[in-house]
């Protein structure tokens, strides 16, 4: 089956700044794919390459088997794109703007404008220039979803939305997947995509450093365990157990042990059970912690082979990226 998105060794330079250093990605039909990384990691650049707002310096990208440049208007009709930064024309109100976009798409999506606006409690009569950040984001979401595209490419879709509207977004995302659409959504916060995404890629400094199922990522993120014993214990009993990392024994009392547990809990449980345990507290580490593991430790080898980055591209075939209209 042709992947919906396939990127191979994508490199993008902005003048002297190398924003992407060989990004490989493969997104399959019907997936909700999360694209995660800190600010400046290269998420928006990758997304702009997907929707033909930029052209790669090196490497290849295909959407539905076509390069975005070759796919042209026909390919764009199949994509709903939410830019990270929305640029709206002056003087139109939200409704006029959305109807204008629908007209550009041959009328597709127009019947859904009211329904989507209602879903997000968006007042269509408000002038675009007077909208708050949250309301601007709603307009962006309506225009991305209204023509029921086969692929939704959403750059930080829930930024600026309150929790209730984030929930509306998730419901809309689920509905889109149910009708067969594919979703590619970026975020700098793992928690934001955790509830909708199946697989996620983590991008850092222009490279994809990890691709995994959200649940597997959560398992790898591990748990923070706090133990308190009735009598002092020795750190040596715990710090080299399989699955136990970063074990610390409070030197002031010798009875409080904290550690990170990844994988099988039995070795730790058995070791602890040799003593009288008076407190046992386990906390899921947030995916953010796993993400920070990569972020904080530049030399750390990611724990999976698939985490390798693509080849760093060469300078040949350089095309200058051109920014076009931000919102389509
Ligand atoms: P993210 O979306 O993950 O925050 P970006 O793709 O926006 O990251 O940026 C990746 C890198 O490229 C950053 O170092 C950023 O400063 C740089 N960059 C992005 N856009 C431009 C631009 N138009 N000109 C120069 N550098 C840019």
From TrEMBL:
Residue ranges occupied by any ABC transporter domain in the UniProt entry: 5-230
UniProt GO MF annotations: ATP binding; ATP hydrolysis activity
Pfam name, any one: ABC_tran
Domain of life: Bacteria
Keywords per UniProt: ATP-binding, Nucleotide-binding, Transport
Region spans: Disordered: 298-328
Low complexity bias spans: 307-320
Keyword Membrane assigned: no
Keyword field contains Repressor: no
Name used for this protein in its record: ABC transporter
Organism: Kocuria dechangensis
């Amino acid at each position: 089956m042709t992947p919906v998105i396939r990127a191979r060794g994508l490199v993008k330079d902005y003048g002297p700044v190398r924003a992407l250093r060989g990004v490989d990605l493969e997104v399959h039909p019907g997936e909700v794919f999360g694209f995660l990384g800190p600010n400046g990691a290269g998420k928006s650049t990758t997304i702009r390459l997907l929707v033909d707002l930029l052209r790669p310096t090196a490497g290849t990208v295909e959407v539905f088997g076509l390069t975005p440049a070759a796919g042209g208007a026909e390919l764009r009709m199949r994509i709903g794109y939410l830019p990270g930064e929305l640029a709206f024309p002056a003087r139109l109100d939200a409704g006029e703007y959305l109807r204008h976009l629908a007209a550009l798409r041959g009328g597709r999506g127009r019947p859904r404008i009211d329904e989507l606006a209602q879903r997000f409690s968006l007042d269509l009569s408000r002038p675009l220039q007077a909208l708050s950040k949250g309301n601007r984001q709603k307009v962006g979401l309506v225009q991305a979803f209204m023509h029921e595209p086969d692929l939704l490419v959403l750059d930080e879709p829930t930024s600026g939305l309150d929790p209730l509207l984030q929930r509306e977004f998730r419901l809309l995302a689920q509905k889109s997947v149910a009708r067969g659409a594919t979703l590619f959504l970026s975020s700098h916060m793992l928690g934001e995509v955790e509830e909708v995404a199946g697989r996620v890629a983590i991008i850092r400094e222009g490279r994809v450093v990890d691709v995994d199922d959200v649940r597997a990522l959560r398992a790898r993120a591990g748990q923070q365990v706090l133990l308190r014993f009735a009598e002092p214990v020795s750190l040596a009993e715990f710090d080299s157990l399989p699955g136990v990392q970063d074990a610390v024994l409070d030197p002031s009392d010798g009875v409080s042990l904290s550690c990170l547990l990844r994988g099988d809990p039995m070795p730790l449980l058995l070791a602890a059970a040799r003593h009288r345990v008076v407190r046992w507290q386990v906390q899921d580490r947030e995916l953010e912690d796993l993400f920070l593991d990569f972020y904080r430790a530049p030399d750390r080898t990611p724990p999976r082979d698939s985490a390798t980055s693509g080849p760093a591209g060469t300078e040949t075939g350089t095309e200058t990226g051109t920014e076009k209209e931000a919102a389509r």
